[in-house]
């Protein structure tokens, strides 16, 4: 027997996702300007070579797919296993929860497992693993770390808020005068 799911429960997951995106910096405890500035600075300095190579361990295995004897004989597939305990101190706090929900996250080992078998060379596959880790960190950071607001944009937003507030008050006064006019016509 199927039960109907109430409407408010169907859309609650969508609402939670939008709240997470709009208030991510506040919920992660990065509401202070110093923390946000540090996170932005970390993001600008991040590239695939700044990620320490000792943060994880690399293992090699046989690659799959077509390739003939090379695939059967050579261990060219690289697997990078990065324990979150060693990675999390290197990244801003705002990135911790999304890394634990990443597609690379292995819950049993509490680590990120990234594999690459794109090349026939071990060194190229190792570099590709670190590049994938860099892409994961960059994409997650760009989604969650808000950009810096310029002074002109702040002034523009303040003017828009002030204009909206004045329009709201004007509409309320108009509505009030309309109701007052109706009241006085009944008294006559």
Task: Describe, in plain words, how this protein is organized in 3D.
- This protein is an alpha+beta fold.
- Helices cover 56% and strands 11% of the residues.
- The chain has helices at 7-10, 12-22, 24-27, 33-45, 69-73, 84-87, 96-100, 122-144, 151-187; strands at residues 57-61, 77-83, 105-106, 111-116.
Number of strands: 4
Largest beta sheet: what is the strand line-up? 1-2-4-3
Average pLDDT works out at: 79
- What structural category characterises the helix and strand content? alpha+beta
The percentage of residues in β strands lies in 5-15%
Brief description of this entry?
By secondary structure, the chain is α+β, with helices and mostly antiparallel strands. It contains 9 helices and 4 strands, in the order H-H-H-H-E-H-E-H-H-E-E-H-H.
